Each structure stands twice: as structure tokens, then as C-alpha cells.
Amino acid sequence: xxxxxxxxxxxxxxxxxxxxxxxxxxxxxxxxxxxxxxxxxxxxxxxxxxxxxxxxxxxxxxxxxxxxxxxxxxxxxxxxxxxxxxxxxxxxxx
Length: 94
Hints:
Layout: E1 3-6, H1 8-16, H2 23-30, E2 33-37, E3 42-51, E4 54-65, E5 68-76, H3 81-87, E6 91-93
Parallel strand pairs: 1-5
Antiparallel strand pairs: 2-3, 2-6, 3-4, 4-5
């Protein structure tokens, strides 16, 4: 069974950005888009969700080791941010 842990940084971001505590886990579990960020060596899950009244792509940055996943942060993606990182090969599909 996979154990999902929220980092203290993620907890802070949820408060600052006024994001529901359920959203990062939902994005991680249901996203069909997972990438490895070659610059940070972290994993990224991306999914469109309703955020502040708009359908926005949100990213959850995480580390996975064994049966443990640490969700590090969550943020809305800027327009073209995902496509630029894929195009420059910074994000590799996993």
C-alpha cells in the first residue's frame, strides 16, 4: 500500500494559495500525466482541475521511494509552462 505524506512546504502552500487539502492527493492519484523534471530530479503530476473558478492545469511535485510518496508542493501552471518544459526536454514523460 502506498503511503502519501504531505511535506510542511506543501501544507504552507495550501494555506497561502487557498487550495483544498484534498486536491494534491487527488491530482497525484488520478493524473494521467506524470513527468520527471530533469533539472530538479523530482516527479511532477499534472491535471486540470477547478481552481478559483477556472479550469486550470495544476502541478504536484513529489518524490517516490518504495511504498512512500512525499508530496512537496502544488501550484497552478502558467500558460505554456508545461508545453515549454516538454519541448525543451526538461520534463520527461514517465
